[in-house]
Design a protein that fits this description.
Number of domains: 1
Helix content: 10-25%
Oligomer: single chain
Shape: elongated
Strand content: over 45%
Order of helices and strands: HHEEEEEEEEEEE
Number of helices: 2
Structural class: alpha+beta
């Protein structure tokens, strides 16, 4: 009888030890949802790419050329600092704003406070600080200017915070946007959108998902691409992680990611 009792106690102790070991090696599920993260990055990257389009468009006016009005959303307060150098057909520097200009090299630093609604309905806030290098080429057929092409890069650091019902998502982003042959037809007054070209954004981010009781973090990189032209309302397809979304270049809103 005594030996049987010892065996039963030993077996019970083994089961308790196994249960304790199993519990300690099974962490609770992460707060970080990859689908939500991708949708958030699509929204912040779409905002960044729409800003690139806004910058190169207003660069034309700064170079002394006729261009459409600033396409910044009414809710944004954008601060620009610009430097320009213009060149003639021989590559010699010349006065900007004259018919002799064939190329302009522009440096832009800009910043603004973000306040928008994401593709998943969450309100997001944040701040943007970027610099952009834009080379503008005037394209001619004979003696008539027919289009303008922009090549360059925009880099910077952004912060974004999405307020969900239970979890707040915060992102610290370092982005580099390649502006590749973004071309506008003339006259610009009736051609506000690029007719060709693309912008590719490479972004590295540190994500923090915070609930009332804990926080989880992760570091990821994403590639986001927009190819032009958009439709007449400024809607263009944004591609990220095998998904496609709609980006509106006027409002900067990203919707319908699938």
């Amino acid at each position: 009888m005594k030996s049987r009792t010892v065996v039963h106690l030993a077996a019970a102790a083994g089961l308790l030890a196994l249960g304790a070991c199993s519990e300690s090696t099974s962490p609770s599920a992460s707060l970080i949802d990859q689908t939500t993260l991708t949708t958030d990055v699509a929204s912040s990257s779409g905002d960044a790419i729409a800003a690139d389009v806004q910058v190169v468009s207003t660069d034309e006016g700064f170079a002394g050329l006729a261009a459409p009005i600033d396409l910044a959303p009414a809710t944004d307060s954008v601060s620009y600092t610009r430097v320009r150098t213009c060149y003639d057909s021989t590559g010699t520097s010349t006065a900007c704003g004259t018919s002799a200009v064939r190329k302009a090299a522009l440096f832009v630093s800009f910043s603004w406070a973000r306040h928008d609604t994401a593709a998943n309905g969450a309100v997001f806030l944040g701040a943007v600080k970027r610099v952009a290098y834009d080379t503008l080429f005037r394209n001619y057929t004979g003696t008539t200017e027919t289009s303008r092409t922009h090549d360059g890069v925009s880099t910077g650091t952004d912060t974004t915070s999405f307020a969900g019902p239970n979890v707040t998502r915060t992102y610290d982003e370092a982005g580099s946007d390649s502006i590749d042959a973004v071309t506008y037809d003339l006259p610009r007054s009736s051609n506000p959108w690029p007719i060709s070209g693309k912008i590719v954004r490479a972004v590295s981010l540190h994500a923090t998902f915070t609930s009332a009781t804990r926080s989880d973090t992760t570091d990821v990189t994403k590639r986001v691409e927009v190819d032009f032209p958009p439709d007449n309302e400024g809607n263009v397809v944004l591609k990220i992680d095998g998904k496609t979304c709609n980006l509106n270049l006027v409002t900067h809103h990203v919707t319908n990611c699938q």
